[in-house]
Structure formats: C-alpha cells, structure tokens
UniProtKB/TrEMBL annotation:
Residues 28-260 form the Glycosyl hydrolase family 36 N-terminal domain. Residues 623-696 form the Glycosyl hydrolase family 36 C-terminal domain. Its EC number is 3.2.1.22. It is an enzyme of class 3 (hydrolase). Keywords: Glycosidase, Hydrolase. This is Alpha-galactosidase. The keyword Hydrolase applies. InterPro entries: Aldolase_TIM, Alpga-gal_N_sf, Alpha-glycosidase_related, GH, Glyco_hydro_36, Glyco_hydro_36_C, Glyco_hydro_36_N, Glyco_hydro_b. Belongs to the glycosyl hydrolase. Coiled coil: none annotated.
Length: 704
C-alpha cells in the first residue's frame, strides 16, 4: 500500500508488518523519514515536520539524510550516482513528479546541465516486508549531444535509524568455503564488500545485516538486512558517518571507473537492491527473505525439486555412454529422479585444457549423440540433464581457433588463462547469437530436461579491442547472460536450469530469478557443509540449495570419513543430490541409500517450502535445523563430536503451537507442543559425526 500526504510530498509504503516513509523538502531534497514498524500516515507527516539537525561545522546537513546521494553540491557522503560529460561532473537535480502504479512508487528528477533523467523506484507488497528499490538513469538530450558517461549508478541508499551502535553481519568465504557467517561491531568509516571478478564471487554474498548494539538474537531483536540482485561485479558500502548515522549503498560495478556511456535516448536500469526490517531477529529476517523469494523471485517455486544424481565425482573426464548407462540403472534403483552427466561429454573434452566452446557430443563417447542415453534415462523413470559452461572457451577448441577475437582481451597483452580457460565476450552480439544457436540446437537435439550452467573463470583481461567504450562489457556481459537464459527458458519451458560457478561463485537474487536452483559449493564434505548451508540460509531458502551425498572418504578436500547416515542427513537440508561412484557402493550401502531417498521424498515439501528455524548453529557440538509447513515439522540434528561421555543438550523447537500435541512419525510418541518449545527434544545422538531426522505431525489441541 502506498499513501501520500503534504500535497504529494510525503510518501508512506506499508507492508505486512513494516513501513517505509520519505519526503521531499521545500528545497527539492528527497529525505528519508522512517524504516521499521508500520506507521500511520499522520506519523509520517509528523516526522516530516520535525526540524532538521542543528548546524555542525565542517559537516553537511544532508549527509545521512538523503534517500539517494548524488555527487556534487553540499555533500560529503559516498555518492550513489556519479556522471560525467564534457560540460561538467556531478549532479544538481530538480524534482519533476511522482507516480504510483499499483504497488510501485516512481519519483522522477532531472539535471538540466547533463540532460539527465533519474527515476527512483520503490515497491513494497501488502503481503511482505521486503522493500524493492532500483533506479533508472536516462540521457534525455537531443541527437548530436555528447554521450553521458555513467561512472556509478547504485540501485539504492538505505538509511538506518539513529542508534548507539551497530553490529554488521556478512557472508564471506572462498572456493569450497562459501557463505560463512561473520559478525563484528561496525566502526566509523566505510566498510566495502563486493566483487571485481565479473561474477558474484565466492568471497562475499551480496547481503548484509545490521542489528543495533549487537543485541539481536536468532529469534528476537531488530534486524535490518539488504541484498543485491546482480550477477556480475558489485559493491555494497556500509557507511558509518561522523555523526553516528549509518547508510548502506549498493549496485553493479565494484569501483567508479565507469559503467556505461549513454548516447542521447539511451537509459540504464539498475538491478534491484532489496531491504527488509524484522523485529524477530536473524531467524525472522531469514524467513521473510525466504518467503519473498519463493513468492516473487524464484521461477515456479511451488514445484518441488527432484532428487538428482550427478556423474562428476564418479567419472571425472573419463566419461562414456556405457558407463553412464550403468550409473543410471543404479541411480534409478535408488529412487533418483534426475540423472545429470557432467563435464566431458562434448568436443575433445578428455581433460580440462580442451573442448570448451564446442557444444556437440563427442562421437567416440556418444556415437549416436545424447538422445540414446537420454531415452534410456527416461525409460528408467528419470529426467535427463547435462553440464555446460557456455561463457568460457579453451584455446584448444574449434571455436577459439575460428574466432580468437571473441574472447575478452587487451590489445598487445598476453591473454591470461585460468583453469586453461578464457572468457567469451557476451557483450558482443555475434557471440550471443552463436551461443543461442549452439544451446538451442543442443536442447532441441535430445530430450534434455535440466542444464547445469557453470562459470569457472573470473574476469581478468576484460578488454574489447576496437570498441569505443570497452568498459561497458562488465555490465553488458551480465545483461547478455540474463537475456540468453530468458530466451532459452522461453524456447524450452520444460528445461530447468541450475546456476553453478565453481560451486557458490554466482549466487544472488538476479541469477535466482532465472534459474531453478544453485550449486552451493564444490565442497561436499558433510561436516563442512553444515556451516556453509547455515550461512546460505540467512538469505536464501532450502528450495534452491543443492546438496550432494558423495563418497567417503572425501577425496576432494580433506579425506574425512563419515557414515552414509551423516552424509544424507547433512544433504537433506536442501535439494538432495547424490554424486558418489555408485558402481563401487555395496549392496548394503545402496539399500540404505534407497531408504534415505525415500525418507527425503516424504519430508521434501516441508524442507523445501516450509519456514526454517536455525535451532543450534554448527559450531562444533550439537547443531540442528527445523522446518515447519502446515501441521508438519521436520528436525535435522547433527553431532560433530561427543566429549567426556556427556549427553548432548536437548534441542528446543520453535514455530509450534504450545496448545497442540505432536506425534513423532518415526517413533509414534506424542509430545506436547509446550514441552518441545520449552524443555526441548532429546536427540539421543552420541559419538562423532552422528545425525538423526525427526518428523512430527500436529494432532490438535490438548484436552482441558
């Protein structure tokens, strides 16, 4: 709901439990009023009528107050907008008007010197507490006017209320160690997170959360959180200003070296920078993020994700059709619903230094193409999927030999290879069309149901010889990726897509609006995964979090040995997959795996679509996570190690009705909701790397 007051100069957006207010002063300054609990319109008017902060020498009265900070004028805060033309640099804007279109508010400004149009977009839906913000910058000059160089255009600036101090939460990591949660007091100055790698990056998820004075817990206290929907280089800056105020700005591009050059008539629309306020701690904020993504971001989110098998860890590059058939038969017998062949099925891809870019089946390995294998997989009752990495090319490939100019490179400089790969310049129209033809033809040549889309190489030599403004490739590569995915989904609506980037290197709201799930990490060690998955859940729901059961010992990273039970219960916290070499599993292991897959299918609607509660963090002892959907509750508990023979503590559940009874579907025991909430559940775990699944169903109110 959007309300206006003060002659159309105060705006109040109201969601399910929270509100957001802003106003335009008599001097044309757009100032922030409120972000927090729902307000009445009269409250917003009263805030707008309050006098400005008192004058303080050497400080700007606008800093920490404005809704969208521009470069120039009486400001010292970090600008969200920076433009340059031969005439001038900096911005001086004039308010042109407001427009309300359903649940979207649009505020329009112009700069007469730059002939610049700026529209700030706000959207808050009645059934959610997420505020979506983005901006559109347009060159409104006449033909023949000089281009406008857009050095920086953030999506939004978020202003927090005055508090005595703030604690910052962020998700950091590296390859095979993504999404790890860290918290620290926010000190004065700028805290800058981001990626200058051309993709979202393993190092930081584009999300921050702040709680006042570090007092919020998992289920109580005020939390402000922001997340950016962009799959390329990005920057989020948390500014702790000299007067103690805090603002958060964020958008595409890591620095201010330039985004785009806009010709007259051209425009740029930023990605969405979403924010929410929650009075219910970090868990309440997470559940709000999850519900919003399931309702508004993720395609067909109500469809449950299938149990998959991926052949990579079983075969590596030594792939062949007979071998894949053998794995498919074992996977089908286990209850797998989607069979995916990974790297090595195409071109001369017998190792990682050749074949990328040549998306046709290797004739020696698949003499009849992929269709015979896909048909057999379908006959076994499974769907069929493939792995691709379309944005990359090996120098040893037919594509590169034909078109060496198609990769990102700098004139006169060595073409740097990482993982024996170069990056195709998707900003080029000829590259985009070639990839469309290749991928559309591939998906039309065989009954492919699923595509694992990988991205294993960061940008380094991001050049475009011959292009007048080569810097634009950083933005246009991502827009081209989005366009290609949109086009493929429209042409092949039955095909699902997974975003992968060496594991969790491209996970964000932008890619999730075009894919069905993401590969969380290349690290499949079940113990490491508990922390990775815990951090991931602070922003994204289990419905998109792919998690595999692989072989023990874990050969990729640490050689750790773990039971099939522990591996399955760890992976059942998301979208379950299996990636081990099934031809080496014993009959006893295969039989046990069938039981775990059957159990996962029973709890899948609750895990993938339910409300998630992080009961105990995975910090060395007992950890647990709970999911609630309707009358059903699922608890996954893990014990890393038991010390001195002491029993692990009881796990207190959440989200239950204290006046109801709950039957454990595994033991038949009936538990009182109040007891589970306050005294807790005895998991009876013991030893090292033990795990258990509990299922409860609500029976009704207790008798008087």
């Amino acid at each position: 709901m959007i309300e206006t007051a003060d002659g159309g100069r105060v705006w109040l957006l109201s969601g399910r439990t929270s509100g957001y207010a802003l106003h335009l002063t008599d001097h044309g300054e757009l100032l922030h009023l409120h972000w927090g609990p729902r307000l009445a319109l009269a409250d917003a008017e009263a805030l707008a009528a309050q006098p400005p902060p008192p004058y303080w020498p050497f400080e700007s009265p606008l800093d920490g107050q404005e809704e969208y900070v521009v470069e120039g004028g009486p400001r010292f805060a970090r600008p969200a907008l920076s433009v340059r033309t031969p005439r001038a640099r900096g911005t001086e804007w004039t308010f042109e008007g407001a427009e309300v279109d359903g649940d979207e508010l649009r505020l329009r400004f112009t700069d007469a010197v730059h002939r610049l149009g700026l529209t700030l977009h706000y959207r808050m839906r009645d059934d959610a507490d997420v505020v979506e913000r983005w901006a559109t910058v347009a060159h409104e000059g006449a033909a023949g006017d000089p281009d406008l160089e857009l050095l920086r255009a953030d999506a939004a600036v978020w202003t927090l209320p005055p508090r005595d101090g703030w604690r910052l939460s962020q998700l950091h990591g590296r390859w095979a160690a993504e999404s790890r949660l860290v918290r620290a007091d926010l000190t004065p100055g700028d805290k800058v997170l981001g990626s200058r790698r051309g993709h979202t990056g393993h190092q930081h998820l584009p999300w921050v959360a702040l709680d006042a004075e570090g007092t919020a817990t998992e289920e109580s206290g005020e939390v402000y959180a922001c997340a950016l929907g962009w799959s390329g280089s990005w920057r989020i800056a948390v500014q702790h200003l000299p007067d103690g105020r805090v603002q958060i700005s964020g958008g595409a591009g890591y620095d201010d070296s330039g985004l785009l050059s806009l010709a007259p008539g051209a425009s740029y629309t930023t990605p969405v920078f979403a924010g929410l306020w929650s009075p219910d701690g970090f868990g309440g904020a997470s559940r709000e993020w999850h519900a919003w993504q399931l309702a508004r971001v993720i395609p067909d989110a109500e469809r449950l994700r299938p149990v998959l098998f991926n052949s990579w860890e079983a075969t590596g590059f030594a792939i062949s059709e007979p071998q894949q058939r053998a794995l498919a038969h074992r996977a089908a017998a286990m209850g797998v619903e989607l069979f995916v062949i990974d790297d090595g099925w195409f071109g001369e891809r017998t190792h990682d230094a050749a074949g990328l870019g040549d998306w046709t089946p290797n004739p020696d390995r698949f003499p009849g193409g992929l269709k015979p294998l896909a048909d057999e997989v379908h006959a076994l009752g499974m769907r069929f999927g493939i792995w691709v990495e379309p944005e990359m090319v090996n120098p040893d490939s037919a594509l590169y030999r034909a078109h060496p100019e198609w990769v990102q490179h700098q004139s006169g400089r060595r073409r740097t290879e990482f993982r024996n790969q170069l990056v195709l310049n998707l900003a080029r129209e000829d590259v985009r069309e070639h990839l469309w033809e290749q991928l559309d033809g591939l998906l039309s040549s065989a009954p492919v149901d699923y595509v694992k889309w990988d991205f294993n190489r960061c940008f380094t030599d991001a050049g475009w010889p011959g292009e007048e403004y080569p810097q634009k490739l950083w933005i246009e590569h991502v827009l081209a990726l989005y366009g290609l995915l949109d086009r493929l989904r429209a042409a092949h609506p039955s095909v699902d897509f997974e975003s992968c980037s060496g594991g969790g290197g491209r996970i964000d709201l932008g890619i999730l609006s075009r894919t069905d799930q993401v590969w969380t990490s290349d690290n499949t060690d079940p113990l490491d995964r508990l922390a990775i998955q815990d951090g991931f859940s602070h922003l994204h729901p289990a419905r998109v979090m792919a998690a595999w059961v692989t072989d023990s010992p874990n050969t990729l990273l640490n050689g750790r040995r773990s039971s099939l039970r522990f591996r399955f219960v760890s992976a059942m916290a998301g979208v379950l997959g299996v990636g081990g070499d099934l031809t080496r599993w014993s009959e006893e292991e295969l039989a046990e795996a069938r039981e775990w897959v059957e159990l996962y299918k029973a709890i899948r609607p609750v895990v993938q679509l339910g409300a998630q509660y992080r009961l105990r963090p995975p910090d060395g002892g007992l950890s647990a996570v709970q999911y609630v959907r309707g009358d059903d509750t699922v608890v996954l508990a893990h014990l890393q190690a038991q010390h001195y023979g002491e029993r692990p503590p009881a796990v207190r559940l959440r989200g239950l009705d204290p006046a109801a009874a709950y039957r454990c579907l595994d033991t038949g025991a009936v538990h009182r909701g109040a007891v589970l909430l306050h005294r807790g559940l005895d998991t009876r775990l013991r030893g090292d790397l033990d795990a258990v699944v509990f299922r409860f169903r609500r029976l009704g109110e207790h008798p008087a």
